[in-house]
Write a structure and sequence with these properties.
Largest sheet: 5 strands, antiparallel
Distance between the termini: 32 Å
Order of helices and strands: HEEEEEEEEEHHEE
CATH class: Alpha Beta
Number of domains: 1
CATH superfamily: Peptide deformylase
Shape: globular
Strand order of the largest sheet: 1-2-3-8-9
Radius of gyration: 16 Å
CATH architecture: Alpha-Beta Complex
Strand content: 25-35%
Number of strands: 11
Helix content: 10-25%
Length: about 180
């Protein structure tokens, strides 16, 4: 399964709820899990990123550790709805620098996004079981990023609306360069 890149218009479309969890939906989820595991930096993947307009996304913060990709649990969220959010906060690294978000659909582009530190989410799992859970920290950030995908919003739009700057990663030099817009 291939990741869809900008400027593909499916990334800007609002998604539709999953009516019923069918074999076709389960196959899509399994293929999305494979695509997420195969990605270099991905910790989340929304259905629009693989060309689908359904309300499904996957999350696995542990996949940030490139050495541990195979055995990690990938959580599935179907028809998610944020019930509540805490205050927003600029996230920083331990060294005090702003954390940067990236996206599999916009390779090598990064930017700071201010997000809520805690959210409450209602959703279905891949077996159709309903859940309502609270998430905080990195997990809350990933979920909000993926929820944006379901609404047709890219993180780059958030960065610009929040007055931030976008950066292009120069991997071979291990540095970031500001993108002029």
């Amino acid at each position: 399964m291939n990741i869809v890149y900008t400027p593909n218009p499916v990334l800007l479309k609002k998604t539709k709820p999953v009516e019923k969890i069918t074999e076709e939906i389960l196959t899509l989820i399994e293929e999305m899990k494979g695509a997420l595991r195969e990605s270099d930096i991905g910790v989340g993947l929304a259905a629009p990123q693989v060309g689908s307009t359904l309300q499904i996304f996957l999350v696995s913060p542990q996949l940030a550790d490139k050495k541990n990709k195979d055995g990690e649990k990938i959580s599935v969220f179907i028809n998610p709805k944020i019930i509540s959010k805490s205050r927003v906060k600029k996230t920083k690294t331990k060294k005090g620098k702003r954390k940067l978000e990236g996206c599999l659909s916009i390779p090598d582009v990064w930017g700071p996004v201010t997000r809520s530190t805690k959210i409450s989410l209602r959703y279905l799992d891949e077996k159709g079981n309903p859940h309502q859970d609270e998430f905080s920290g990195f997990m809350a950030t990933i979920i909000q990023h993926e929820m944006d995908h379901l609404d047709g919003v890219l993180f780059t739009q958030r960065v610009l609306v929040q007055g931030g700057k976008l950066y292009r990663e120069i991997a071979e030099e291990k540095r970031f360069e500001e993108i002029e817009i």
